[in-house]
Specification:
The complex is a heterodimer of chains A (about 300) and B (about 220).
Chain A lengths: L1 H25 L7 H16 L5 H4 L18 H28 L9 H16 L2 H12 L3 H25 L3 H10 L3 H35 L7 H10 L3 H26 L13 H5 L2 H14 L1
Helix pairs in contact in A: 4-7, 4-9, 4-10, 5-7, 6-7, 7-9, 9-11, 10-11
Chain B lengths: L5 E9 L3 E10 L4 E5 L6 H8 L7 E5 L8 E4 L11 H12 L9 H18 L15 H15 L3 E5 L7 H18 L2 E5 L3 H7 L2 E4 L4 E4 H4 L1
Parallel strand pairs in B: 3-7, 3-8, 5-6, 6-7
Antiparallel strand pairs in B: 1-2, 1-4, 8-9
Helix pairs in contact in B: 2-3, 2-4, 3-4, 4-5
Classes of the chains: A mainly alpha (about 300), B alpha/beta (about 220).
Chain lengths: ~300, ~220
């Protein structure tokens, strides 16, 4: 037993040492002024980043030009930018999901023969091989600066990324319902809609929510190349060296991502396979389904 | 004599090597045939080959069963869509059984007729109160009733069932056997089932094929 533990330690330390050597090689031995690094960061934080420019969140700005709402927040740059990013992510996730589910049903080896599967997977790999920001640059060239380029970039990336997750999920579903449907003579679209979707629905929903979160996060970056959303404001602020503005936008993004993450967990708690919890509460969101089920059943028996 | 539902001639099945070689079998309308034998003989492989799920090695399968809805297949673990409701599962059979041509292609009428068939079939198997329950919440016996209802709603030419009576208590097994025998007789379709227990096979089938002995005999003869 102790020999085993020593071996694990030996391998771990070797890997760590190897990583340090590679890192040193990457920076060519020039580690810069590490000693002053933290002081520089602190100075940058105090002079440039903090305090954030709260007016970007609470005061009406010039964008959008015809915003006539009484409350300034709804006309602020942070709100309008974030809303645009959310809209982009939502639309891209929905269209991407439809594209992904269609293609993944032609990429799962338990649904189609190899001559259909291979070209479909190749196409999906192609869409996935470029990060969404590169797709955004391409679409900015094709359709010009604005949210459409961002949406198209995210749709293409979603198809490739989500499609891969989906066909792997489809390949994992039980063989027998598929065989029963095939023996009956149901066609491909019937098998997908009547067997695959209900069997994998929970996982697909989880993946859909995950992809939405992912697209919101990436939507904020896509603005940097002119593809709309709050990223566009960040890009402009960085060009003008207004880092306290950047800080404000980052705080907004952080809050929105956290809220989406909680909402996503809440929705997913409805569809866990093992849970028979009737209506979800925040307890079921924060605890694993099996544990919350146990707690709930205890509570019910006490009642 | 009526035209047989299926005529199997010199059929060999297996994957790279044959598991079952040169089997000959004819199933007449209204007849139930059971295949018995110890595990590993290729009973399930034979059934899956007839269902068209794996290619045969040699021989011929003759019969008008390859049309949509021609074969009703109940696999060993029933092949139900676990996360869907009883209605949804029986609907899979009904969408093949209720032909669109019978409602002149009118989708609304087709849907209505399908719904009537589903409700009647679910009532027949005694699960009307569970019609909207997901399969995963049903007991093993209830799930077998759903698989039976799916096959009945499909109204196939041939039902292939793989040990679908296993793990059932006597009462449940008896009621499903009675239901299946009546359905096969009324609709003049055929049924080929794999059954581990000889006694249960005798109870449901008209003829038994013992694959370990390679012997075919009628149930009446054996008794």
């Amino acid at each position: 037993m102790s020999v085993k533990v020593n071996k694990v330690w030996l391998i771990s330390l070797t890997l760590l040492f190897l990583s340090l050597i590679i890192l040193n090689n990457l920076v060519r031995g020039d580690w810069g002024d590490i000693t002053g690094g933290f002081a520089n960061l602190l100075k940058f934080w105090n002079t440039e980043l903090w305090p954030p420019e709260w007016s970007l969140i609470f005061d009406a700005q010039s964008e959008p030009p015809n915003c006539n709402v009484e409350i300034g927040f709804f006309c602020s740059k942070a709100y309008t930018g974030m809303l645009e990013t959310l809209k982009m992510a939502f639309v891209a996730t929905i269209f991407g999901f439809i594209g992904a589910i269609t293609l993944s049903s032609f990429a799962a080896k338990n649904l189609v023969p190899n001559y259909v599967l291979v070209p479909t997977r190749l196409f999906m790999s192609m869409t996935r091989s470029l990060p969404s920001i590169i797709w955004a640059i391409i679409f900015v060239i094709v359709v010009g600066i604005g949210p459409l380029a961002g949406v198209l970039a995210m749709v293409i990336y979603t198809i490739g990324y989500l499609g891969k997750l989906q066909y792997e999920e489809i390949e994992g579903i039980n063989r027998e319902p598929l065989e029963a449907a095939r023996a009956m003579g149901l066609n491909h679209s019937e098998i997908v809609s009547k067997v695959v979707l209900p069997e994998s629905g929970n996982t697909f929903l989880s993946q859909l929510l995950f992809m939405f979160e992912y697209n919101v996060r990436h939507g904020t970056v896509l603005g940097l190349v002119g593809a709309g959303g709050i990223g566009l404001h960040i890009d402009r602020a960085m060009e003008l060296n207004l880092y306290n503005h950047v800080m404000t936008y980052l705080i907004v993004i952080f809050i929105v991502i956290v809220v989406i993450d909680f909402l996503s967990l809440f929705i997913r708690s409805f569809v866990t396979d093992e849970s028979e919890v009737g209506s979800p509460s925040f307890l079921t969101v924060l605890l694993p389904a099996s544990l919350s089920q146990r707690l709930f059943s205890q509570k019910q028996s006490e009642d | 004599m009526a035209k047989p539902i299926i005529n199997i001639i010199d059929l060999s099945v297996g994957y790279s090597n044959p598991l079952v070689s040169e089997i000959n079998l004819t199933i007449q309308p209204g007849e139930i045939v059971a295949i018995v034998g110890v595990s590993g003989l290729g009973k399930t492989t034979l059934l899956r080959t007839i269902a068209g799920l794996i290619p045969k090695l040699s021989g011929r399968i003759v019969g008008d069963i390859r049309t949509r809805g021609g074969i009703g297949y109940i696999p060993q673990r029933l092949g139900l869509v676990r996360h869907a409701s009883v209605y949804h599962n029986v609907e899979l059979g009904a969408r093949c059984g209720v032909k669109k041509s019978t409602t002149d292609g009118n989708l609304f009428n087709w849907s209505k007729r399908k719904s009537t068939v589903i409700h009647k079939t679910v009532e027949l198997v005694g699960l009307s109160d569970k019609i909207n329950e997901p399969i995963r919440r049903l007991s093993g016996g209830q799930q077998r009733r759903v698989a039976t209802a799916r096959a009945i709603a499909q109204q196939p030419e041939l039902i292939l069932a793989d040990e679908f009576l296993s793990e059932l208590d006597k009462e449940n097994a008896d009621s499903i056997i009675k239901l299946m025998r009546k359905f096969v007789a009324d609709n003049q379709c055929g049924m080929l089932l794999v059954e581990h227990h000889l006694e249960r096979a005798k109870q449901i089938a008209d003829r038994i094929i013992d694959l370990s002995e390679f012997e075919v005999y009628s149930v009446e003869e054996s008794e």
